[in-house]
Amino acid sequence: MPPSVGRPKSSDLSQIPPSPILSPTFPSTSCFENEARPSRFLSALRSTMSSWGETKSLLNKTNIYAPVPNNPEDGDVSIAGPRDVPRPTRPPYSHATVFGLTVSALLLGLGIGPYIHRNIPGNCHTERNSGDEDPFAKWGEPGTGTEDIAWYPTDFLRDVIPVACHSHNDYWRKVPLFSAIYAGCTGVEADVWLRKQDLLVGHDTAALQPNRTFLNLYVNPLVKILERQNPSTEYYNEKRRGVFDTDPDQTLTLLVDLKTNGAETWPWVLKQLEPLRERGWLSYVQDGEIHQGPITVVGTGNTPFDQIIANSTYRDAFFDAPLDHIENSTFDSTNAYYASTSFWASIGNVWFRGGPSDDQLAKIRKHVREAHQRGLKARYWELPPWPIHTRNRVWEVLMQEGVDMLNVDDLDGATKGDWTKPKSF
Asked: Where does the record place the region Disordered (predicted)?
């Protein structure tokens, strides 16, 4: 990650060395002598064409015949022409073919010849000013005067396009959190376990390690990212910018899946979120009004809904409502954010059809409609991962039907490939 930077002082600007390229340079006069080379090529071409014309004319005027050896009708007798003069052997290629190849070679020579001549060692080349080199080679290095202007202040993800996808089991990535947001995912997931008064992250107990904590893998890195995205300067002193430069208003959903007892574990989650809370980077609800922040925390798994809604005036964490059971419920955007369910359990198998049937499509539409009526974001987990063409078809249908967050394990497949194109496997 680039070092923290600030705006340079006006007094420091005078210390920045001027660019070594002061004015354009031109080749020496001797180089222009090479411009006569194309005319020599054309002269050689005309000479070759003239020679071909004379040879063809001579052959046409000569009344000769080629012998036909061992003709079955003549026995072993070879028939010769009137003057018994052997006809010259015909070249293996026609004149038109040779002519075309020669013209192509000459045109190629005209195009790359001057470039090769100017750039191979020992030949004439563009003269450069003494000591001239790439002006950006040492950009940002100490002593160059560019240390404080080398990096765009909020450039962590300046060229990443946010994508409505959720990094399922994000802690499995080689680099948790960073791999997901670098791919453009706007949601990440952490499975947490309460162990010895700390929150460890892992899919099961065999994967738990004392250094892989909720703070180390998610909370603290997010604080550092957002501090860079929200610098305190004379021009900016706010906390509204999220992790994506291309869309700073886009929130990042942090889904916390509680694996241990919810009543005991959830208070620890709220406690460890304090570094984000105190800096004003959490989405929250106050007096019934929703305020979106750079990070939106959602509790799922064993998260107790009664603790989510315990504070009726303020809350900065939301619930993951059951997508297939929200009809006639009290879930809405003030207490929940996602509405999720297992695709396999609620929609069914699609492997044999290569995509949802009409009945399955009707269920999807009903789920999405119910979620949107309550201001919730529809999400399915446990999507078919294989065959690839079935997975891609399901992704395409879900996006077409208005599902808000695509639950994915294959980040590259979801954010870089064109999964609307059919694939065999």
From this structure: 1-24
Token pair recorded at residue 46 = 């005309």
Measure the CA–CA gap between 6 and 18, rounded to whole angstroms: 21
Span 52-58, average pLDDT: 50
Cα distances from 132 to residues 24, 117, 121, 139, in angstroms, run 12, 22, 18, 15
Highest averaged pLDDT of the listed ranges 86-95, 190-199, 350-359: 190-199
Give me the pLDDT at residue 23, please: 37
CA distance 177 to 171: 7
Secondary structure of the chain in HEC code, one letter for each residue: CCCCCCCCCHHHHCCCCCCCCCCCCCCCHHHHHHHHHHHHHHHHHHHHHHHHHHHHHHHHHCCCCCCCCCCCCCCCCCCCCCCCCCCCCCCCCCHHHHHHHHHHHHHHHHHHHHHHHHHCCCCCCCCCCCCCCCCCCCCCCCCCCCHHHCCCCCCCCCCCCCEEEEECCHHHCCCCCHHHHHHCEEEEEEEEEECCCCEEECCCHHHCCCCCEHHHHHHHHHHHHHHHHCCCCCCCCCCCCCCCCCCCCCCEEEEEEECCCHHHHHHHHHHHCHHHHCCCCECEEECCEEECCCEEEEEEECCCHHHHCCCCCEECCEEEEEHHHCCCCCCCCCCEEEEEEEHHHHCCCCCCCCCCCHHHHHHHHHHHHHHHHCCCEEEEECCCCCCHHHHHHHHHHHHHCCCCEEEECCHHHHHCCCCCCCCCC
CATH class of the domain at 163-415: alpha beta
Question: Could you tell me the residue ranges of all domains in the chain?
Answer: 29-119, 163-415
Residue bearing tokens 């939106």: 296
Signed CA dihedral, 387, 391, 397, 398: sign only: positive
The rounded distance, in Å, linking the Cα atoms of 313 and 120 is 76
Distance CA 293, CA 285 (A): 11
Distance (Å, whole) CA 65 – CA 88: 10
Find the farthest-apart pair of alpha carbons in the chain and give their distance in angstroms, rounded.
Answer: 118
pTM above 0.70, yes or no: no
Model confidence pLDDT, tens digit, residues 157-168: 778 999 999 999
